[in-house]
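Entry for pyridoxal-5'-phosphate complex. Fields follow.
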Amino acid sequence: MTDDLLARHKAVMPTWMPIYYQEPIELVSGSGCRVTDAAGRTYLDFFGGVLTNMIGYDVPEVREAVERQLRTGVVHSSTLYLIRQQIELAEKIARVSGIEDARVFFTNSGTEANEAALLVATNLRRSNQVLAVRNSYHGRSYAAIGITGHRSWSASSLNPLQVSWLHSGDRLRGVMARLADGDHIDAAVEDLREVLATQTAGDVACLIAEPIQGVGGFVHAPDGLFAALKKVLDEHGILLISDEVQTGWGRTGEHFWGYQAHGVTPDLLTFAKGIGNGFALAGVVGRAEVMEAVPAISFSTFGGNPISTAAGNAVLDYVLDHNLQANAQRVGAILLEGLRAAAAQQPIVAEVRGKGLMLAIEFVRSGTLEPDAAVTTRVFEACKAGGLLVGKGGLYGNVLRMGPPLTLSEEEAREGLAILVDAIASAAA
Ligand SMILES: Cc1ncc(COP(=O)(O)O)c(C=O)c1O
């Protein structure tokens, strides 16, 4: 049955849209943090459809909110009419964004959210020059690919923007490797000044950065970096865009947004993935005077539609009412500690990193820094065999990524941890 579906998939889908696993699976049902495949096998899900099923599967509060909206008969109206659910969600997001006098524009995906942020920033500054970060991922449109610093995801060199690149926060490889936090920040600031002086015409529109690089394998620079960079950006009037598509809504445990670890507020913030818990919902938030810099009509047919925003309201209420940020911090710490203890015995693990429920393991050839994608795949498959779904990533495909639902319990964390530890041991043997 699954084989048949795989053959049909291959016959009709492009090969550049990859699927996981030697024997791909079809998920046919889900509940809480578990999913069941078409063969009847149940897995604990530590990837949540790429950090998107943020509060788990089959959540009654979300289902009922969506069903209530469906029963009204209005699935779509367009933003030419008032949409109560959309306005309510915008009010809530403006309140939690940390941005003063915020305006919110809804889109269907993170890519579109970043496009909208770039549209605003480049219009406000009347400049198409943008600073981006190596090892980043921001989406799949031309502009989003243009600011994506990751070869595996860069399908085109066509770019409407003039992009200059800053170093990633990689602490293992490259010129910033193994620098102490303060030295790393000093070097990054010096790099920014040099890039501005040597690669740009000065009037740069914005810097776009992920607080923790998602697709890049959860690489992150020291806390405080954004604030140090923003001091320089402010000297030139350059805007800061924080891409919170993976880091938002309390996932990092210590904060509600990734940017808050840096002691600075961005001019624009983009969000997607988790807020819809699977319904297509994304957007950009910014200060009014920044967001108003669009000199023509712009709207999104499906962005912020009644169904997705009904879901979004229910999801955000759930996250706040259940203080899932605190759960991410508590349960994430159990995982991080357990993984670090296991990794200390395993020379194939170069680093266990991340924050809250956004954790990664980087694999290398024993005792070296040479990326080992093959061993990563072995661990990945062994996790599946043990009943655990995780993700992969990193510039060299040698990073296991975990972004379980923020509702993950302590028992589920320990259960997943045991499977991971066994999988690493079996791949190392
Ligand atoms: C940080 C980040 N930004 C943007 C995107 C693009 O979002 P979407 O796939 O919803 O267009 C992603 C998707 O993985 C992402 O991780």
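NOTE: The pocket of pyridoxal-5'-phosphate is lined by residues 50, 109-111, 114, 137-139, 210, 214-215, 243, 245-246, 272, 282 (CB under 6 Å).
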